[in-house]
Structure formats: C-alpha cells, structure tokens
Amino acid sequence: MQKEKVQNVQTDLQEEVKLLLNSQTNKEKWWIHIHPIREKPWLLKIAMTCSLITTIMLLVGLILFSVMEISWTNIIDPQVFENVQTFSIMLFSFAFAFGILITISWVVTDLDKILNNKMQFILLSVLSLMVINIGILIYVFETNKGAKSKRHLSWKLFGIRKLSIHDVVLCGMFTALTIVFAYTEQFMPQLPNGGGIALKYLPLITLGVVCSPVLSILAGGASALMSLLFLSSGLIISPWSYLLDYFIPMMIPGIISMLKFKITRKNGYISYLNYIIVGFFTFLGIYIIQTISGYFVWVAAFGPSWGDNGWVYSIIYNGISVWALSYPVNQVLMVPMIKVSLLINRK
C-alpha cells in the first residue's frame, strides 16, 4: 500500500512538472487568450462597446476636472471648490483605473469565463460606474442559471461549516505561520511611528482563498491575540489602538475571501486579475481601518508629526505604510504562495 501511495505521488509530481514546462515553453500563448470578437454573442459585444465608451468618458471627465477653474462654476468659496475638485479627480481616477481592467476583461473573455467569474465582473462594473454593463450581467446570469446556481442560500456558501480536526490543525498551522511572519517584520524597513512592510497577511489571504474564509478569520483573531506577546508597549496606547491597528486588520483577509473570487492555478488575464482584486481589496480594507485609527487614536493623543490637518497626515502616513511598502510585496508573493497551496490541496 505504501509503495502504491509513493508511486501515485510521483506520477502526480511528474504531471505537474510537465504542465509547468509546457507553460514555460509557451509563454507567448497563455498570458492572454483573446476570444475572437466576431464569435462573441451580440450581448457581449454591446457590453464591450459600452465598457469602452464609459472608460473614454471617465478619462474625459478626469481631464476636465483636472483643468477646471472656479470661474467655470457657481461656487464662491475657493476651499469648497478645491474639496469638490479633489474628490471628483479621485472618483474619476478610481473609476477610470477599474474601467480599463473591466474593458480588457470584456475583450479577452467569453460567456463561460463570465459565468465562472461573476464576482469579478460585477465588482469591477460597479466600481467603474458602468450601469448598463451591470444590467447586462444580471440578464446574462439570470438566463444562464444552472444547477449550481440554484443552490439554497446557506452559511456554507460563505465557508461557514462545522469544523473538523483537519480544519483545527490547519488553522493552528497558519496561525503559527502568521505569527512567524509578524515576528520577522521587525527586521524589515519600518516607518518611524509604526507601520511598514507587513508580511503577516500572506498566510491569512492564502488560508481564506484556498481553504475557508472562516478559518482565515479565526487564525487572524488568534494571531492578533498572540502577537501581544512580542509587540512593543509603545505600539499599543489603548484598547482602541490594538483593535483598529491589529485585531480587525488581521480578520480582513478572511472577510474579503468571502466574496468568492475564483482563484485557480490556471494562467491567463482573468485568473491573475482575481489575484490582484483579492490583494487590492484586502489592503484597501486594512488601509481604511488603520487610517481611522491614525486620526482618532494617534493624532488625538499626540497630534500630527507634521502639518496641521490630522486627516491629511493619517491618510498620507498610512498610505505610505500600506500602498508603498506592504501591498506591492504581498501582491507579488501571494501568487506563488496561493498556487503552491492549491497544488498541495489539489485544487
């Protein structure tokens, strides 16, 4: 029996090596698979056209608000005009970036990929303000309901189920791995008032995507509690600072993984875009929570280290910590880490 198990493992590894070698020798073929536009259903052609037009309109709006002057409006107060202009530029920039992503998705996709990546198309359409495409997606999903989509709503759809011994062991392993990653952060570049490259979210993202969002939330909470053993006393000044800077952020990877993005070992634009979306929204949630903590806890206690506006200080400081240091490193490392975990878990 043991010899048969060893032989099965060897054959599985040989198959994986062959797949990797084939993907390496055909890099120019797998990185993007454009479904011929002529073969697309008419409804998908309409969605693709609307997506392209909306993206161009967002770019025009972004340029317009960037060059707009107060004399073009009925606003009298310069401060109000500056706030409205800044908000509009941020909104149009955000929507334009996601508009580019969803437009590429419509170009390279077919009906099967849309049905298998519902959350990606819905979320990107909402964030890029593409109202017509949202209606088209709803129609496509309603007219292509299968047996899988007729499942009754239950907690199992969100990864909530009765935990087995395997789940408990897995949760303990990833909790330990998270603590190890958190401990190694003290040897990496850090900002003077806390924050920097944070690798502790990698195991939690992997656990939530590959296994269960609930296990990721449990592991995150346990890791946050055990991190009290080696955190410096100067980094926690109140229960609120611990809750907003450590406890809640450690649960966000599990919460984001509840959105059920289809993460697989397959190569291609749609697949890698799911990795980017999971990583981006995980750190967006962390950024929002820590920015709130920066203003209501740290600025309230010590004031901003520079400038007079506490919100501006918290937004910029946490933006440097999350978007300039933590997010790029985690986004790059999470792809191979998740793929290895999927290979081990045979998904």
UniProtKB/TrEMBL annotation:
One MF term in the entry's GO annotations: thiamine transmembrane transporter activity
Entries under InterPro entries matching the protein: Thia_Transptr_ThiT
Transmembrane segments: 42-67, 87-109, 121-141, 163-183, 204-231, 243-261, 273-298, 310-329
Domain of life: Bacteria
Keywords per UniProt: Membrane, Transmembrane, Transmembrane helix
Keyword NAD belongs to the record: no
Gene Ontology cellular-component annotations: plasma membrane
Designated name of the protein: Thiamine transporter
